[in-house]
Write a structure and sequence with these properties.
With about 375 residues, this protein is an alpha+beta fold. The protein has helices spanning about 10-15, 35-40, 45-50, 65-75, 125-175, 180-210, 220-235, 255-275, 330-340; strands at about 20-25, 30-35, 80, 90, 95-110, 110-120, 220, 240-245, 250-255, 280-285, 295-300, 345-350, 355-360. It folds into 3 domains: about 10-120, Beta-Lactamase, CATH 3.30.450.20; about 125-210, Orthogonal Bundle (Helix Hairpins); about 215-368, 2-Layer Sandwich (Heat Shock Protein 90). A hairpin with a 4-residue loop joins strand 1 (about 20-25) and strand 2. The strands form 3 sheets. Strands 1, 2, 3, 4, 5 and 6 form a 6-stranded antiparallel beta sheet that branches. A 5-stranded mixed beta sheet has the order 8-10-11-13-12. It has 9 helices and 13 strands. The mean pLDDT is about 80.
Amino acid sequence: MSSTRVPEEAHRALVAAAPDGVIVVGRDGVILLANAEMARMTGWTAEELVGQLVEVLVPIAHRGRHVGHRDGFTRDPHSRPMGSNLRLSAHRKDGSQLPVEIMLAPMRLHDQPATIAFVRDATDRRRREVELEEAMAAAAAANRELEAFSYSVAHDLRAPLRSIDGFAQALLEDNGPQLDDTGQDHLARVRANAQRMGALIDDLLALSRLSRAELRRGRVDLGKLVRDAAARLRHDAPDREVELTVESDLIVHADARMLGIAIENLVGNAWKFTRGKAPAHVQVGRTPGDGVASYFIRDDGVGFDLAHAVNLFAPFKRLHGVREFEGTGIGLATVARVIHRHGGRIWADAKPGEGATFTFTLGSEDGR
């Protein structure tokens, strides 16, 4: 980028009128011009700054490196922010440091190449960044504490639930004939609810473990995960007629164990909600597009009304009654947690009586 040629008087007028701090530095690193705002920000007068090396404004610990940076800009002068993605500070006359943002641009002064630096006080922005980081750290700590508490509570609840179920079963086996139909029905309901609560606790524990587990990406055959999940479902319900279509070469870069859990839930949902179809159809593939790759699992089951699906991926939110379809309401929350851990997103499309499609991405898949 060629240096701009304008009269020296115009340079001085622009520097003086600029709302940000401004200094002009020669090739030798000496400050040639400084405006009143720069003087106010740093505690020197403009006259005191002129004639000093620009390193006087650099924190002492960084002055040695700054000379090399300055020489680099001199060799390749073009407009750019200084220290992109770094937190820069200016050294004040009293020895304190001022958070700043700096933009550099080449120019000419006294018919010689020079650099103009626009310096902005970043104190407020830096404070907001620190506050945001502290808030995020506090939220992360609170989430970890909540997850640990949930894990502990859920773990401690399993033993008494097993006892309730076990004693109810023993009572039915030993004293069942002495109970009328109502009594037997009450005990059967106790067992069913204890077992459902046990399944719910198991799902909560699994969800908690997903939040704490380390993500280990690698090459994963998504199609094989789908076919394996379907094989287990066919084994449990051999009389079901389900036509499964899986697109070839669905290779992704993901955590195989976590993605397997998500696929198990998504394929299980498709299997469950197509129960009334013979044959039912489940299709798995990749959505065409030039952006981030997305993958879908589509079924032709009972579907649902999207108007009632605001909290579809939240724990315990169910769109169908327990008597219609079994489940704890944790499955889709688990799927969403896996997808979010990968930096991706998941969404659904459905109509009552016409099936549902779940589509997801897996964030950055670089390295496949």
